[in-house]
Amino acid sequence: MTWVWFHRLGSPPYIYRLAGRLTPWFGWIAAVLLLGALFDGLVIAPPDYQQGDGFRIIYVHVPTAVLSLTIYTSMAVAAAVGLIWRIKVAHAAAAACAPVGASFAAVALATGMLWGKPMWGTYWVWDPRLTSELLTFFLYLGYMGLRASFDDLQRADRASAVLAIVGVVNVPIVKYSVVWWNSLHQGSSLSLTGKDTIATPMLVPLLVSMLGFTLFFAAIVLVRLRAEVLRRERAASWIGEAIAT
Amino acid sequence: MSHFFAMGGYARYLWPSYGVTLLAVILNIIWARGLLRRAKTDARRRLAMQSEAR
């Protein structure tokens, strides 16, 4: 009985309608949170005692960087579920994650470079954190490229799922690179278990921004998921009804 | 106001950071919507072909 919801999530018509209903909620709440974080982060939060106003890049850099890893993990989990239980919707979800994750990784790299120049004196160093995050970006591109190289969606799903799962070893490397190696990149300011090493007026916009970007990702992935589900349903009778509007 | 945009001398790094982020947000919206629109068009075409075949 408790597994009914799980089976429903594997049902294409159910997921198509549910995703359509949820998208505006996620999208508009994300818009409100991101605008709030923008104002709080750029206007209200005080300048840093060392980095001045330059630290404000944190509000776009950290959420996109963290999400580039969470999205990758979600993509790998969805791909594994699709591979093991042969659930089409799971493969569709994995495929929907990749372009969003790639764009977030690109933003994290670009904003990191723009933050590195004034603080470290250079846009780029082949540092463990920077290099492994660059690899994350390339893993997304590789996943998307591999999918695009197949005409048959089922074969694309299976082959790319293997790549997604293998690539997940890179995620802890990115996360712990600043702990394991002597990195130029600063350590984490946020901690789920210990004490945050950031002052509350600076922390609040960061948390709001992270939540905002997470919901934004959810909204985009739901739109992409609907497109992926439609592509996989060749002759299903529910489609006519679903796309009538 | 110009004090705000100067960002304590970090303007040339800070505004491009927010600029690329905004660009990525907008592109994500455009790409995802385009993908869904194309998927719907393709599905409609497939349905039309199937009903003709019958």
Q: In words, what does this structure look like?
A:
The complex is a heterodimer of chains A (245) and B (54). Chain A is an all-alpha fold. Chain A has one domain. Chain A is built from 9 helices and no strands. Chain A has helices at residues 4-9, 12-44, 58-85, 88-120, 128-148, 153-167, 170-180, 200-232, 238-242. In chain A, helix 3 packs across helix 6 (153-167) and helix 5 (128-148) runs antiparallel to helix 7. The radius of gyration of chain A is 20 Å and the shape is globular. The model of chain A has no long low-confidence stretch (mean pLDDT 93). Chain B is mainly alpha-helical. In chain B, 89% of the residues lie in helices and 0% in strands. Chain B has helices spanning 2-6, 11-53. The N and C termini of chain B lie far apart (68 Å). Chain B is rod-shaped and about 70 Å long. Chain B has 2 helices and no strands. Classes of the chains: A mainly alpha (245), B mainly alpha (54). Chain A binds chain B through residues 34, 38, 42-43, 47, 52-54, 56-57, 60-61, 64, 99-100, 103-104, 106-107, 110-111, 114-115, 117-118, 216, 220, 223-224, 226-228, 230-231, 233-235, 239-240, 243, and chain B through 4, 7-10, 13-14, 16-18, 20-21, 24-25, 27-29, 31-33, 35-36, 38-40, 42-44, 46-47, 50.
Q: How many strands of chain B?
A: 0
Instruction: Please tally the helical runs of chain A, counting DSSP H or I stretches of 4 or more residues.
Output: 9
Which ranges of chain A are low-confidence, i.e. pLDDT below 50, for 5 or more consecutive residues? none
Tell me roughly what share of residues is in helical segments of chain B.
Answer: over 70%
Element pattern of chain B in H and E: HH
Assembly of the depicted chains: heterodimer
**Fraction of residues in β-strands of chain B:** under 5%
Number of structurally distinct domains of chain A: 1
- Pairing-aware structural class of the strands and helices of chain A? mainly alpha
Proportion of beta-strand residues of chain A: under 5%
End-to-end distance of chain A: 33 Å
Described by the principal axes of the CA atoms, the overall outline of chain B is rod-shaped
> What order do the helices and strands of chain A follow?
HHHHHHHHH
